Amino acid sequence: MTPPSDDDFAQMINAAMASLPADKVEGLGDQCVVTYADEPTAEQMEKLKLRGDRILLGLFEGVPLTKRGNGWSGLLPAKITLFKIPLSHISPTEKDLQENVRHTLWHEMAHFYGLDHAEIRAREK
């Protein structure tokens, strides 16, 4: 599907956040920023060692809560970025896009809370 406008995509992210458990969303607090971009940067792709045939729907950048120590205050917050164009490309309809935004946001939030891919998949089942 054609990517939505930035305003529409931001509204989809807000709707996704409203549909997730409130305690998990509130737990992000000022420790994790949720944002979006059209596509991942070359630096993000290189850092993840992603080949050109792979797509990236979302990315958590930062230190998970489970790895933070006492001296954590004063540092920049973690960041979750959702990528509008790749999410749009895998979504045939607006409803599918909304669900893919929600699923990707949950996945990246799980990384913030310290879950790895195996733990995320197990919880999704």
State the helical fraction.
40-55%
The CATH first-level class comes to Alpha Beta
Number of strands: 3
Q: Give the amount of beta strand, in percent.
A: 5-15%
| CATH fold-level assignment | Zincin-like
Largest sheet, order of strands side by side? 1-3-2
Structural class: alpha+beta
What is the makeup of the main sheet?
Answer: 3 strands, mixed
The tally of domains stands at: 1
Shape: globular
Please give a quick description of this structure.
Helix content is 48%, strand content 13%. It is of the alpha+beta class and 125 residues long. The chain has one domain: Zincin-like (2-Layer Sandwich), CATH 3.30.2010.
Describe the structure.
With 125 residues, the protein is of the alpha+beta class. It has a single domain, classed as Zincin-like (2-Layer Sandwich), CATH 3.30.2010. 48% of the residues lie in helices and 13% in strands. The protein has 6 helices and 3 strands. It has a 3-stranded mixed β-sheet with strand order 1-3-2. Helix 1 (6-19) crosses helix 5 (94-112). The longest helix is centred in the last third of the chain and has 19 residues, at 94-112. The relative contact order is 0.22. The mean pLDDT is 91.
Helix-strand blueprint:
Elements: H1 6-19, H2 22-28, E1 32-37, H3 42-47, E2 58-61, E3 78-83, H4 84-89, H5 94-112, H6 117-124
Parallel strand pairs: 1-3
Antiparallel strand pairs: 2-3
